[in-house]
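call fold(seq) -> tokens
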Amino acid sequence: SADIQELAGQAVPWANSDTGSRGSITELAESRDNGQLCRRFTASRESFDGVALFKGEVCLAGAGAWRMQDFKAL
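ret:
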């Protein structure tokens, strides 16, 4: 997982070679909800059908796995 402090507001790029989609994750913010580590983010997706923006939140579920709590199109 990414070290939020090392990123210092930089976008984190992603790409899916199977679909050709790509984008970036920005506005990454970390918080603790009832002691559980969570991260809120904004993500972009560029694909054959255009550009889309999303907001989401993931929380650490244990054993290093992240669980999606919220994800919606803007």
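The first strand starts at residue 12 and ends at 15.
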